[in-house]
């Protein structure tokens, strides 16, 4: 039976896909491969390709990297049309996404635009912050501690965010690295931060000396973990 399956493929290591995700990829007739329009490849595909059928139909869906709502909406409408057409053709479609399909993912926006009778299944994946926590043997939260996930935008008050939580995950950090560093200095939290670039990939970088890191040192896929109680080193 035709349906759409949103599949989280984690952040880089193909061995971290769930068994359910692997089985779904093996059964899919087509796979939607989101990629930035500045690239000629899909990072999600590189992670999951070994689990797909050799003859799977690959549908690349380019998305804008420009922070403009109109362009983003056009992208989402395009993805939804592609999925709707595939479903009408009787295909089971996999929409693979880095991390988790329900966490800052394009999949959610596409899902909301599908025709009413489309069957949808979602298979969770490991998020960047869960992967980082495990990679460093550092718990995200313990006991009564709080955790906040902060995607940095122009209007984000970073110092205020830091003051309101025990542990913080900062995402979309590349464009805002200098703002983050300045906020960490002002709040006295530089020593309690760690940045991971390309977590789970062969070129992974773990950076504790955030004060001296530059944008050129890290990739788009970079996340910062801040723990006010101090980082655990193992």
List the helices and strands and how they pair.
Layout: E1 3-8, H1 19-27, E2 30-36, H2 43-48, E3 57-63, H3 69-88, E4 92-97, H4 106-112, E5 120-123, H5 128-135, E6 147-151, H6 158-163, E7 167-171, H7 177-186, E8 193-197, E9 205-207, E10 222-227
Parallel strand pairs: 1-4, 1-5, 2-3, 2-4, 6-7
Antiparallel strand pairs: 7-10, 8-9, 8-10
Helix pairs in contact: 3-4
Notes on the protein architecture:
With 234 residues, this protein is an alpha/beta fold. It is built from seven helices and ten strands. Strand 8 and strand 9 form a beta hairpin. Helix 3 crosses helix 4. The radius of gyration is 19 Å and the shape is elongated.
Features:
7 helices; 234 residues; 23% strand; 5-stranded mixed β-sheet; 28% helix; alpha/beta
- Rounded mean pLDDT score: 88
Helix content: 25-40%
Number of helical segments with 4 or more residues: 7
Shape: elongated
Low-confidence runs: none
- What's the β-strand tally? 10
Q: Could you give the order of the helices and strands?
A: EHEHEHEHEHEHEHEEE
Major sheet details: 5 strands, parallel
Distance between the termini: 48 Å
Quick structural overview:
The protein has 234 residues and is α/β, with parallel strands linked by helices. 28% of the residues lie in helices and 23% in strands.
């Amino acid at each position: 039976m035709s349906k759409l399956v949103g599949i989280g493929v984690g952040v880089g290591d193909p061995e971290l896909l769930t068994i359910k995700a692997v089985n779904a990829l093996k059964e899919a007739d087509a796979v939607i491969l989101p990629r930035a329009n500045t690239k000629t490849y899909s990072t999600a595909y590189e992670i999951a390709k070994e689990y797909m059928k050799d003859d799977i139909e690959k549908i690349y869906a380019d998305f804008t990297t420009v922070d403009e709502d109109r362009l983003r909406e056009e992208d989402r409408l395009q993805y939804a049309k592609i999925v709707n057409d595939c479903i009408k053709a009787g295909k089971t479609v996999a929409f693979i996404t880095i991390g988790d399909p329900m966490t800052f993912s394009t999949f959610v926006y596409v899902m909301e635009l599908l025709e009413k009778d489309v069957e949808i299944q979602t298979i969770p994946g490991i998020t960047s912050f869960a992967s980082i926590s495990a990679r460093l043997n550092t718990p995200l939260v313990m006991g009564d501690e709080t955790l906040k996930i902060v995607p940095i935008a122009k209007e984000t008050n970073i110092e205020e965010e830091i003051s309101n939580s025990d542990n913080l995950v900062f995402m979309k950090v590349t464009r805002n690295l200098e703002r983050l560093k300045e906020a960490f200095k002002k709040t006295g939290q530089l020593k309690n931060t760690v940045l991971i670039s390309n977590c789970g990939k062969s070129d992974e970088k773990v950076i504790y000396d955030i004060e001296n890191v530059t944008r050129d040192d890290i990739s788009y896929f970079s996340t910062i973990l801040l723990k006010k109680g101090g980082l655990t080193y193992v």
